[in-house]
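Follow-up to my post from last week.
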Amino acid sequence: MTQRYCLIGSPIDHSPSPRMHNAGFAACGIDAHYVLRPTLPEELHILLEEIEQGDWQGLNVTIPMKLPVAASIKKDELATRAGAVNTIFITHEQEVIGTNTDIEGVGEPLRLRNYSGGDAIIIGAGGAARAAAVALDQLGATIHVVARETNKASAMLMDVNVRKPGKTLALENEPLLGELFSQAKVIIQATPVGRHQERYSLPWQGVAPDAIAFEMLYNVHTPFLQEAAAQGCVTIEGWEMLLFQGMRAFEIWTRHPAPRAAMETALRFGDTHARIEGSDRQ
Ligand code: NAP
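User reply:
Got it. Predicted complex:
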């Protein structure tokens, strides 16, 4: 029987996850299909019933469902630390478990650039920033957090309980931000700023040219990436995070190595065909 996987959240119409996962299943000869299943928090109980009935063999979870799901199902250690679930899997014993593969989505691109510790700055203190903090902690980083409100940055670092907490500061604290930028090995942008070419003023002039600038937004060449590249930094684009979180979910669900080439090609260059559950849109 064809296995069924889906993405839940809203709005999700433009998600590239179906084409990425369906290309992965096809490349591995796995009889499975991945669809979009638009879901709002108030519909979570229906979704949980569907999982109980065996309708889904695995799910990805996006905004605004990551926290409601985390509050409603059993979580592994990664999801507990990140405070959010982005992937659901079902064990051999039929237990429904929430995990967080965004952590791998941040960690793997950094490992591929041979990053293995040193000062790292996270801009933002939301869900994706928390996943980044766990990933950086696993890599041995000293983690500094910059946010609109310092108390949110401090609360985030404390909650994630990182081994080497650094400074927490407000975005407008230019002198301290300049100091941190000049010692940073990695700077991760984990806010929606830049989606429409908005920018905040960041002290790029002091950054080392071999520093890594990691933008989480995908499908857009943000001012953050443009300014980092102009400074000579190594840049990582948001599609890499999407790819590696997806590959990790694929491996958890199928227990099969994820076919990177097929999934990456579909993600970056594939068409946008995606079936939305409950509609005939193709
Ligand atoms: P979130 O939980 O809503 O957190 C958003 C963060 O951005 C908060 O810290 C928020 O600060 C901050 N922020 C919002 N508007 C801002 C502004 N104008 N100036 C400064 N800070 C601002 O969202 P999230 O889930 O962490 O996602 C963050 C970004 O990562 C999104 O753009 C998302 O698309 C992207 N993302 C990408 C991937 C991927 O696979 N590539 C995966 C997950 C997320 P306040 O608390 O002060 O509002």
